[in-house]
Write a structure and sequence with these properties.
By secondary structure, this protein is an alpha+beta fold. It has a single domain, classed as Orthogonal Bundle (Multidrug-efflux Transporter Regulator, Chain: A, Domain 2). Helices cover about 30% and strands about 10% of the residues. It has a 3-stranded antiparallel β-sheet. The radius of gyration is 17 Å and the shape is globular. The two termini are about 25 Å apart. It binds zinc ion. Zinc ion binds next to helix 2.
Length: about 90
């Protein structure tokens, strides 16, 4: 054991994108699927769903209401997306 060589804190996980996360979406798009949000935010779907549950963001699509979208598809509004981007860093795992 070498007590003098201890590394603490993040290093390679640091991002160079600046303090504010920015995502670009189509102006006409108002609803985003979990996979779309994952792609836009860099947050994986698993974490995304956990965040959504804990923060009461997003909603589960009902099959009848969302034609073309799978049942139990987690959906997010644009404001949900902005909250996620603001609150949560990209996944680095
Ligand atoms: Zn993750």
């Amino acid at each position: 054991m070498s007590p003098a060589s201890k590394r603490v804190g993040p290093s390679k996980a640091e991002k160079k994108r600046g303090p504010r996360a920015v995502v670009t979406v189509k102006a006409s798009q108002k609803i985003f699927t979990d996979s779309e949000v994952a792609t836009l935010t860099g947050i994986c779907v698993d974490h995304l769903r956990n965040f959504a549950k804990s923060r009461h963001l997003g909603f589960i699509a009902r099959a009848a209401e969302a034609a073309g979208i799978q049942a139990d598809q987690w959906l997010f509004t644009l404001s949900d997306l902005m909250v996620l981007v603001t609150l949560f860093p990209r996944c680095t795992h």
